[in-house]
Fold each of these.
Amino acid sequence: MNSQFNKDTVEETNEDDDEDEEETKEEEEDDEGFSVLSELPVEKSERRPTCRRCCRPVKVCLCPYLPPCPLDVSTCLYIVQHPAEESRVLRTVPLLAACLPPGKCKVFIGRRFSEERYPELAAVCKDAHTLLLYPGAGAENLEDLSTDFSTTAHSVVLIDGTWSQAKDMFLRNALLQLPRQKDVTVWRKPSHEFGGFLYKAEGTVAENPQRIMDYIRPGARRLEWDSMITSLEILQTLDQGCCVVKYTTSGQLWNIISPREFVDFSCTSEYQRGLLSCGVSVDHDEQKAGVVRGFNHPCGWFCVPAEDSEISVLTGYIQTDLRGMLPQTAVDTAMASSLVNFYSDLRQALKI
Ligand SMILES: [Zn+2]
C-alpha cells in the first residue's frame, strides 16, 4: 500500500465515522418518541448495507482498490488484536483478510494470551520460522535476515492496537517475547577441492552430542526434520557407522536453484569429546530423470559439548558443488540461508 492509498482510506474513514455519530443521534431521537409510535405499524429501520468482503458500508467500500483475487502467499499472518481495535471504525484487519486466501490470516482477540488458552498461537510463537512485527532495540530489518523465505513457510505475528495497547500486549505476554535463536555464524573461503566455496557454519544446540548426531546422521529421522531434504534412501549399510545414502534436496530461491540429487558415502564416528558425521559424494549410475545431480566434496558436521554447560557446539564444513548453470550470488544466498535454517529446523526437532 502506498501513502496515497493510506491517506484516502483515513479520509474516507473519518467521513464514515461522522456518519456513524449522526446515525446514533437519530436513533436516540427515535427512542424518545418510541412509546408513542410503538402502536403504529412501522417498517423495519433500514441499516446501511455493508459490503460482505471488506465489512465497510457499501458507500465507502474499498473492494475496487483491493486485489480481485486473494494474493497467493505462503506466509500465514497471525493477528493478536486488542479488544478495543475490533470495534474501531478503521477496521483494517477485514481489509487485510480480504486480500489473503482463507486460512492465511487468523485473528486472536484479547489482551492476555496464555499458552493454555491459546495453544495454536503458542505453537506458532515457538516456531523458529515465525517472525514478530514489532519495533524495538532488538528488531532487525527483514532484508538483513539470512533467511530464504522461498524454502520454508513462515508465519508473521502482528499486534493490532494503538501504540500503547501494542506495547502493553508485547510486554505482558511472554508468548510474544520468546527468544529468537539466531546465534548461527556462517563463513566461507575458496575451496581447495573445486571452483566454489568452503562454507563453515557454527552454532550452539541445547542438547548432548549423541542425540544431536542421531538427528543429523543419514536415516529416516533426518528426513523428518530437515526441510531441505525431500527424499532419503540408504542404498547400502557398511561397518562402523558408514553407509551410502541417496537424497534429494528441494528447490531454492524461488526455484532458481532446482531440486538436486546427491549420492554420498557417509561415516559417523566419535571425534575428540564428541561426534563427527562426514561424507563425500560417490559415483552412482542410476539417476532420477529431470533432477540435477549435485556433488559434495568432503563435508562434515562436528559436535562437541561446550565447556561447563549442557549445550553443544555444532560446526559444519560444507563444500557442495550444485552444478548446473547458476549465478554465484544465488548459490551464496542459498547456502547461507539453508545453513541457518538447518540449525533452526534441528533445534525445533530436538525440542519435541
Ligand atoms: Zn467492499
Amino acid sequence: MSGNEMKYVQEAFDGNWVVPLGPNVNGFEKDLEDFVNTKAPLNPPEGGTLPARWACGKVFPVSAEDASASLPPVGGQRGALRGEQRRAYQTANPLNYDLLKDNAKRMRQNSTEAELAMWTLLRNDNLGFNFRRQHVIGDYIADFICLEKGLVIEVDGDYHNAPEQQEWDGYRTEFLKSLGYTVLRFTNEQVLHNIEAVEAKIKDTLTHLAQGEDASANFPPEGGQRGAKKVVALSAGTAAVHLALIACGVGPGDEVICQSFTFCASCHPITYLGAKPVLVDSEAETWNMDPDLLETAIKDRIAKTGKAPKAIIPVALYGMPYKIDRIMEIADRYGIPVIEDAAEGLGSRYRGQVLGTFGRYGVLSFNGNKMITTSGGGALICPDAEAAKKVMFYATQARESYPYYQHEEIGYNYRMSNICAGIGRGQMTILDEHIAHHQMLASFYSEEFAKIDGIEFHGNPAPEYDSNFWLNTIVLDPSLRVVGEEDAYAEVVKGAVGGAAGVTHEAKSAHTDCEPNRNVEAMRMALDREGIESRPLWKPMHRQPVYADAAAYVNGVSESLFARGLCLPSGPYVSLDDARRIVDTIRKNIK
Ligand SMILES: Cc1ncc(COP(=O)(O)O)c(C=O)c1O
C-alpha cells in the first residue's frame, strides 16, 4: 500500500460516499484514463514509416514541397493537403481522370456479389444517409461514398490479400484521410457472411461522424495512435469481460473466440450469456492466442455455422502482450471486435502502447493479486464516451429515466464502490513503481535461470514486447530430475493450491487426465517446504471438464506449457534477497 489509500477512503467516509459511484470512482477512472492513454514512445515519428500492421511500411514525405509528389503527405493526417496542392494532385493528369470515370461506369455494370449486397444495405433507408457508388476522388475510385459525412466504404475482393495490394490499400486510405475522408474497408467474406456486423459498424461510424468523433473499432486512427479511451470502474475484471461481451452484442446462440490458455474468467462470461466459447490455442513465443489458429477457427466457424464469431478475446497471459499486429489485422479483416483481456497486463506495453487499448474493449482487474488492487475490482477500457455510458447503464441495473424504477433491459450490479475506488486512487500513485519492481525481478530471474540447464525463463520475445511480468514464469525440461518426484501427487490436495480464496470441492483423486509433470509438482512441493509459494500455469480451458464440449482449435502448445511450467513469486513484497533464495532453493532441489 502506498499510504495514500487511507486518505481517499477517509474522504469517502467523511463525505458519506460509501456507495457505488462517487468522487473516488470518478477520480480513479480519470487516473486510469490518463494512464492508458499515455502516448507511445515507440510510435513512428511524423513522416516516419507507418505501423507494421498496416502492412505498408512506406516512408511518406513530410515537407510542403513534397506534397506535390504523387504520394499523400504526413501519415495521412486530415487536411494535410492544402487547397491548391490538392487541386494540383487531382488535375495532374486530366486524361487519367476521364479514364477513371469511364472505368467507374464499367465497374458499376459488373458488380461482384459482395458489392451488390453492400449496395442493398447502403440504400436501405434505416441508415439515414445517402450513399453513391463508384465516385472518383483524385486518381482513385471509391466503391461507395456518403458525401454528406465524408465516409468512404470499400469492399475488397480476394486479390486485396496480396501484400502489394495491401500496400496500395494502405497508401490510398492515407490519401483519402489526408483529404478529410473517413474510410471503412470490408472484405467480401465480411459482407457475405457477417452483414449484421458490417451494418453495425457503418451505423456506429455514421453516429460518431455526426458527433465529430473518430469511430475506429479495432483500427487505430492516423499515426497509429488511438484516440482517448474512456474507462469504467467495475466490481471485478470478470464483470468487465461480461459487460464487454454485452456491449459487442453477444447473446444466446452466438459464438465467441477465446484464448484457451487463460484463467477461467476470460471464458466463463461467454457462457453466462448463453453463447458458446470457441477455444483457440497459443503460440510458443508469447504463450498467447496463435494468430494462424485464430484465422483457421474463424474460417471453420463461418463454414460450419454460416456466421462469424461475435467477438475475439485474446489474453495478455502473465502480462505478456499477445501478437497484437496479427490478431488485430485478422479481426479487422473479418470485422470482429476484439475484447483484450489485459486483467494481468496492467502497464504492459506493445510498441509503447498500453495493453487493453488496442481492441474495441480492454479488461483490467484489481483483484488482490494484480499489479494494483482495490481489494477486489476491475475496469473496462471503452473506445469512447458513448460506449462507456452504455457500459455504465448495464453496470447499474439498466434503469430507464423515470421517477420510479423502470427496466426495459436486463442489467447488473457491477459498478465499483467509492470505498474501493479510494484504494485504487492511492494505488495508482505507486503503479509505476510496482511495474518497475516486477520487471526488475524478471531481469534477475532471467539472468539466473540462463545459468541453469533444463530451466527456461519466459521473457519478452522481441523488443516491441514490454511485459509487466505480473507473474514471472519458468518451464522445466521433462528430463530435469527434481528431489521428491516419487512423492509428487501422492496425496489428494485439500483446499486450493497456494491458498487461493474461496470454497473448493474436495478432490476425488490426486490425478486428472491433464496435469503438470511430476518434476514440476515436485519443485512446487520443494518450494512449499521452504515457505515459498509457487503455482502451476493456468490449465487450458479446452482441457477443463466444464468445456469438454466446446469447439477447440489446438496445436499442443498450451498443454505442453501447462505440463512444464511454474509461476514464481513476483509481487512488490518479493525483495531481491527473496528472489535469490527462491533461485537457490530451485537449484538445490535439482538432482
Ligand atoms: C486473465 C484473467 N482474466 C480475468 C480475470 C478476472 O478478474 P477478477 O478476478 O477481477 O474478476 C483474471 C483474474 O482474476 C485473469 O487473470
Amino acid sequence: MDKRAAPVRHGQVKAASSPESSPEGTSETPRVPSVPSVRVLIVGGGYVGLYTALRLQKKLKPELKRGEVEIVVVTPEPYMTYQPFLPEAAAGNISPRHVVVPLRRVLDRCKVVIGEVRKIDHGKHTATLTTLATEEEGTGPVELSYDELVLAPGSISRTLPIPGLADHAIGFKTVEEAIGLRNHVLEQLDIASSTRDPAVRDAALTFVFVGGGYAGVEALAELEDMARYATRYYHNLRAEDMKWMLVEASDRILPEVGESMGRYTIRELRGRNIDVRLRTRLDSCEGRVAVLSDGGRFPARTLVWTAGVKPHPVLAATDLPLDERGRLKCTPKLTIDGTTRAWAAGDAAAIPDLTADEDGEDGKGGEDSKGGRGGKECAPNAQHAVRQAKTLGDNIVASLHGKPLKDYAHSYAGSVASLGLHKGVAHVYGRKLKGYPAWFMHRVYHLSRVPTFNRKARVLAEWTLSGLFKREIVSLGSLEHPRAEFELAAGGARPKDPKGSN
Ligand SMILES: Cc1cc2nc3c(=O)[nH]c(=O)nc-3n(C[C@H](O)[C@H](O)[C@H](O)COP(=O)(O)OP(=O)(O)OC[C@H]3O[C@@H](n4cnc5c(N)ncnc54)[C@H](O)[C@@H]3O)c2cc1C
C-alpha cells in the first residue's frame, strides 16, 4: 500500500448528537491498534454497492485479514434487489425472496449497517447516518468517518405535481411495490366479481400504467398476462372485461430495445387489447379518476407510475458536485469530479460514455436520448451499474496501491424484455428477437446475471415448477397487515381500507 493507504482517521465513529452512540457493526474497539486502517464507506447496497463490495473483498483479502482495511456498507435494507426480476415477481413466477440477495451472507468480510446516510461532508470525510437503532433509541443521527467514499444510492421515481398522484399511484422499483401491486390487482378481480355496482366494477377492472420504459412495459405486460389467466377462475369475469392502458408522453415505448422493436411491442400489446396511448400525459388522478391530456377520463382503482427516475435526493445533502439533473458529476475513472477519494457509479452518477461516438446510433441494440449510447453519459441501467462497479472496485484497489486508474468504457449491448409468459422482445448485439425466442433469451440472460449460484438455482427451480403446474393466482394482501385479525378479535374495529388508498 502507498502512503495514501495509511489513513489518518482510524475509523472514528462519533455521534452527531451524543458522543457515545455508534451505528450497528462499527464499534470502535481497536481492531489491530498498531496497524493503520482504511475505511471504505459504501453508501447503498444495490447493484453498485454490492458489486463494488464484492470486488473489494476479493481483491483486498489480505489487507482485510490483516485489519488494514475495513469495508462498511450502509443500506436501508439487508438485501440487494435484482430489479429486472420484479415484473416476474409481480406475475408470481418468482417468489419475492428469490428476487433479493442477502447482503450479510455474500459480503461476509464487510460490515453491513442497516441505515440511511442523510448527509455527507466530504471536506471532513464524514457521513451522517440514521440506523434502526438510532430511530428506536431516539438518539439522533450518528457520524461515521471514512477514508474512501463510494456513493451509490441509485435513483427514486421521478414524479410530477399531478393532482392525486401522491395519494393514489404506486411506483414499481421495489420488491414491496411489486408484490403489493400483484396482491392489489388480484384483489381488484375479487372486488369486480363481487360488486353489484357497475361503476365500482369498471374502476376495479381498469389498470393504468404511466411511462413506457422497461419497468412500465414489463410490469404491465406481466401483470396483464397474469390477470388474464386468473379471470378463467372467476364465474362472472372475462378477460375482455378488463381495461389495461399504457400512457406514454413521447411517441415510442421501450427505447431500450430500439425503434423497430419498440413498434413491435406496441403491436403486441395492442393485439392483447391493451390500450397504448402515445404522446399522451396523465393530467390528474384525483378521486381515482385518471384524466389524460387527450381528453380521456377513466375511473381506475389502479394507477402505476413508472415515468422515469431521478437521482436519490441524498445527493443534494452532500458537498459534492452535481450536474443539472442532480447526478454526481464523475470522471471516466469513476471518481467524483474535482475530488479525491470519492467515487460513484450507477443511477446516481453522470459518467461520460466513452463509447458514445463509436456507434451512438439508436436502433443497433442501443439506447436512446434517455442517456444511452446516443447521449454523452451512460444510461441508468443495470448493465452499466454492474460493469462500473467492477471498474470502480479495481480503481479503488489501484489507488490504494499507488497504481494508475482505468477508464470505464462499455458499449451498450442492448436489452431484453419480457412481455408475459412466453412473450418477449430483445435487441442484443444487433440481433432482434421477438415472441418466444426473445422471452427465452430474457430468462437465460437474467438467470446468468442474477447474483449468486444459490439464487440462480432457486429461480431456475421455480421456473421449472411453474412450467409443470398451474399459475399461482392467490392474493395475499392480508400479509401486509398481520395484526388486523388479532386486533379485531381483541375488540378493535376492522380497518375501513386496510390496503390504503391505492
Ligand atoms: C422494474 C425495473 C426493471 C429493470 N430492468 C432492468 C433491465 O432489464 N436491465 C437493466 O439493465 N436495468 C434494469 N433496471 C434498472 C436497474 O435496476 C438500475 O439501473 C440499477 O439498479 C442501478 O443500480 P444502482 O446501484 O445505481 O442503484 P440501486 O440498485 O437502486 O441501489 C441503490 C441502493 O442504495 C440504497 N440507498 C438509497 N438511499 C440510501 C441512503 N440514503 N443511504 C444508504 N443507502 C441508500 C437503496 O436502498 C439501494 O439499496 C430496472 C429497474 C427497474 C425498477
Amino acid sequence: MGGAVSAGEDNDDLIDNLKEAQYIRTERVEQAFRAIDRGDYYLEGYRDNAYKDLAWKHGNIHLSAPCIYSEVMEALKLQQGLSFLNLGSGTGYLSTMVGLIIGPFGVNHGVELHKDVVEYANERLDDFIKNSDSFDRFEFCEPHFVVGNCLEISSDSHQYDRIYCGAGVQKDHENYMKILLKVGGILVMPIEDQLTQIIRTGQSSWESKNILAVSFAPLVQQNRTDSNKSEAVVLPALSVRSLQDLSRIYIRRTLSSLINEENPNRTNTPRASQKRKRRRCRRRRRINTYVFVGNQLIPQPLDSEEDECIEQESKDEEQEKDIEPIKPEEPQVNHLRDKILSLPLPESLKAYLLYYRKK
Ligand SMILES: C[S@@+](CC[C@H](N)C(=O)[O-])C[C@H]1O[C@@H](n2cnc3c(N)ncnc32)[C@H](O)[C@@H]1O
C-alpha cells in the first residue's frame, strides 16, 4: 500500500517529498505545511502513519491524504486578508494552515457535521496556539468552527473569497456551493470524481478547471423528514477586532520587523530542506486517482512509473561529495518571544502580547 509520494519520517520529511513530487509548488504553501505538524492531528498511538501520503479515518475523525491538501492549498491561491470557508472542516488541520496565510485580517470559518469532531478541532487549535513553535513566526487568523450540515447554510449568509469542501459534492449541489462565493472568488471541491477549481468571474459566470481525479466520501445529505427538520446553519458573524487586539497585532508586527532588520539573514522557514536522505529506487511519480478501500483512501497511479534507479542515485551521491557536509540543526530561537520578554513592560502586558503562551 503505497502513497503518491514516499513516506516521511517526520513532518519536514513529508513536506520535502511533497515538494519534490511538485504537489507543493509555492513558498507560502510550503511554509504553512512546515508550520503545522500533521502528526498533531492524529490520536496518540496512530501518529506513526501521519507522515505517509495516506488518508486517515478513525471514528468520525477523517483526514485526507497530504498530496490532496497540497493541491487544494495551491489551487485556493490564498492571500493575506481573504475570507475562507471550509465545508466539512474536520480536524481543523487545513483551516489552521489557511489561517497562517490569510493572517489576522482574514476571516476563517468552518462548518462540520459532527459535534465531537468540532470539539477535537478546537482542542487541536488550542494546542497549536498555546504550544506550537510556529505560532510566533506567523500572523494568524484563528479558525471558528460551527456544528451543522453545510448543505443547510442559512440563505442570507455572507459570501466568501475562498471556499473548500472536504467531502464529495453531488452535481445537484454545485450551484448551492457556487452562490456562497464572492465574485472573483475561488471554490475548490471534489465533484464527479474530480477535484475541481471554480472561479466566480461574474454575478452569473464561473470558470471551472479539473485539478486531480479523486474519490472522496460524499457529503452527508440533509435530513429531509419534517419531524426531524433541522434549523438552518448560521455561520459565525464577521466580527471586527477590538482595539486591544489590533494593538497587539501591530506591536508584534513592529517588533518582528525590527528583529528582521537586526538579523537580515534569518529565514522564516525553520528548515529549508537541510535533510536529504538517500533512498534506493525512490519512486517519483504523480498519482492522479484515489479510491476508497474500506475507510482508507488509496492512491492509484495512472501514469507510467518513473522509478529513479540506482544509477541516478550513485550520480547524485558523487555530486554530493563536493557539497559541504550538512551541519547539525541549530536549536530554534524564538526571537519575537525574547524581544517581548526584554521589554520594560508589566508582566501582565507581556503575557498578553505573548498570547499567554508559556514557551
Ligand atoms: C475528509 S474530512 C475533511 C477533513 C478536513 N479537511 C481536515 O482538515 O481535517 C470530511 C469532513 O466532512 C464532514 N462532512 C461530511 N458531510 C458533511 C456535511 N453535510 N456537512 C458538514 N460536514 C460534513 C465529515 O464529518 C468530515 O469531517
